[in-house]
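Entry type: protein chain
Record version: 2
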Amino acid sequence: MAFSILELSETFKQQHLSTLKGIRRGIERETLRIKDNGRLSTQPHNKELGSALTHEYITTDYSESLLEFITPATISIDQSLSQLKDVQKFALDRINGDNYWPMSMPCVVSDQDEVQLAQYGSSNIGKMKTVYRQGLKNRYGSLMQIIAGIHFNFSFPAEFFQALKEVSGSDKSLQHFTSEKYFSLIRNYKRLSWLIPYLYGSSPALCPTFLQGQKHNLPFKKAPTGCLYLEHATSLRMSDLGYTNSEQSSLNICYNSVESYVEAVQEAITLPSAEFARIGVKVDGEYQQLNSNILQIENELYSPIRPKRVAKSGQKPSEALSEGGVEYIEVRAMDVNPFVSTGISKQQMLFLDILLTYCALEQSPEFTKEEHSECNDNTNKVILEGRKPGLELHQKGAAITLRQLGNDIFDKFTHVAELLDLANDSNEYSQALSIERAKINDVTLTPSARILDELLVGKKGIVTWALEYAKQFNEELDAHQYQEFDEQQLVLMATESLEKQKVIEQGDALSFDQFLENYFAK
């Protein structure tokens, strides 16, 4: 039985309001370590931070210089942000004078060889993680390793899906129904994914050292202070300059069900690539990549949103999904917000709650190839031209201005914001929606416009500008008092993580070659 968003909102308002109190969120914040002069830090991951392999909250992403801070899933936005601040403060005090670069696109990098691939110790799993990154370096270049982003993990409580199941009259198991609804959410998110770079894109400009001979066809302008920018761009991080894989265009990843998605992903990691085969796998006794397939492993699949489940030890992500169903979703299309020390604000998280709840409640027909292509085209257009006056997108094949489409969507979001306000006894969601809607009608309020205004009108170089914010955030973290984690607790976690790494290393019984053979044979 199909219900409109208004009908479902009313039903939840009257009967199932409490199920919306248990929304859980987690943050994965990446940040590049820099020297005082704005150049890339080449320090290794500091031992005082613990093991990048086993620490729950502090690790590295693709490079030794790219820290990643992770918060556990909680039902409080304020708690999540406090946890993130605590972890950032702890790390800042233990990185030997380095600073956090506050932007997504990288700082000054004189040479690609300055980028040190992340190291995870001598265990087989640790070596595999580094070889995977070696493969990424050989496939896409070192500078791709140091682009930072925000990943937002989001889940509804089981009671929410039980209520939806009752309302819809479904006789499916709760696990099957939950996965089905998460994929409905994902499809609706992809229909609206252009909103994310428009509202939150924060990389309209970059340091020219990032290009270093890289081929592109973007009509960059050069500011008097030296940075390169696109006049109407929102998120160069999400453009072809960022982490994308042209080989992946041949893949047909289906988002219509958990079964079709898992089948497509598992097929993708076995498809050979003639281009990547030219790199070689093991050359002169050294691994250059894990294999020469289009995807080395599932993590290489680029997607702005992913269905996720916490995997067991040694289990592939798709195997975990197939066995246990979708547990949460990961929004991956977020630039680092350079205006807040945490890289993501409470305002953004409130809006994401509205967007994702809407995507879960709204009807979500299965994708056709044509609609999927239209959604991607809309997002790509906003990435490069999002602030262009009168910009037109497409909806079901028909042209419509971004402003008109945005206002139509926000009209529907209103019902969800009211629902979430009622559930949480607040008016924060309606206020957040009003702030974001203002950006739809006034492009100068978007972060990408604000950044270009500060760079161009303020006549500041991108490094000078970024360092001003880095200094401001350092002072904020210095003054911050631990709230969710005790400092000694974090010291203990760091020590225990190093011990865990030793145990893993001592427990290896196979050669690395045999380990990889067994992993890919499963």
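Comment: The chain has one domain: 5-117+143-253+303-313+325-521.
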